């Protein structure tokens, strides 16, 4: 059966229903965490949804980059917030709704990349709270994942459009372009069971033409850098903002690990000991990133390996491991790998029963951790 036929069959409708059901279930879990946080703290919905970076994006939406520290953030989400505000929608609530919808769009792309299991595992990610609020993760994943899907289909003109949006959403757009460049040069990549097959390109002239499309998102990124230069007079304004606002300096990986280990000491955060747990998870996320890159190499998915590895390296040289937990959401090869593992069917009734029990426990643990993480964010505690 052809790919087109498979994608218009009852099987596709069944997968669509499963993805929507998983999306709704995870949103209900985080919605319950939101209601509990509001009840415990007396916060309004807009206030509970508007913590941490949401405030930065709203400030950019209203005042632009008047504060040099805000240059650490990219303009796509503030543009959306400004539009929402113009039509009378509160920015924190409107951006949360946009993120919710974008997460569903991203999940459908994940199904194309790695099959149904990969999409559901992505929705079950414990740090998924960042896809329910005015953060860039959901928007980036929606455009980046679909850019990768379209690259696998050979639709490089649309890849350039979506990658350009990604480059205006967060710095991860640069890494996406790098990964897509590798995909163009290698002429395709392996396909896991249940995913949409990738088109293979044998001609080097066609590979180079595909690669040339990526000049477009790089030009968009360069234009944003020039814009920041006109405001600040410095070419390193983004790095300067990271340094001023988040103490991020060029640091060796071992020193970054040492600094992060120090941050896992609860005594360092006497009034908010949960911060120590978040930094512990940052270390776990770095390890997951390394394993994901290695897994991609084993699968001979060279472009995916490069996409993840360069991000892991970037996180390892910035004072301490910070925001890596959120970056897990961007690493679609991670969920492709986990989804592929879940798709394996063990032999024997006992083995299948044990496997089902283990998967059930893992799902329950993921949902409990998701609830805990979401409640932390909604209460205004540090959540990565």
UniProtKB/TrEMBL annotation:
Q: Name one GO molecular function term.
A: alpha-1,6-mannosyltransferase activity
**What GO cellular-component annotations does this UniProt entry give?**
mannosyltransferase complex; membrane
State the EC number(s): 2.4.1.-
The membrane topology noted for this protein in its Swiss-Prot or TrEMBL record is:
Multi-pass membrane protein
Record GO biological process = GPI anchor biosynthetic process
Q: Which domain of life is it from?
A: Bacteria
- What are the transmembrane regions? 17-38, 87-109, 121-150, 156-187, 208-229, 277-298, 305-323, 329-344, 356-374
Give compartment(s).
Endoplasmic reticulum membrane
Tell me what this protein is called. GPI mannosyltransferase 2
The kind of enzyme this is, by top-level EC class, is transferase
**Coiled-coil zones:** none
**Organism annotation:** Propionibacterium freudenreichii subsp. shermanii (strain ATCC 9614 / DSM 4902 / CIP 103027 / NCIMB 8099 / CIRM-BIA1)
Pathway info:
Glycolipid biosynthesis; glycosylphosphatidylinositol-anchor biosynthesis
Q: Which UniProt keywords apply?
A: Endoplasmic reticulum, Glycosyltransferase, GPI-anchor biosynthesis, Membrane, Transferase, Transmembrane, Transmembrane helix
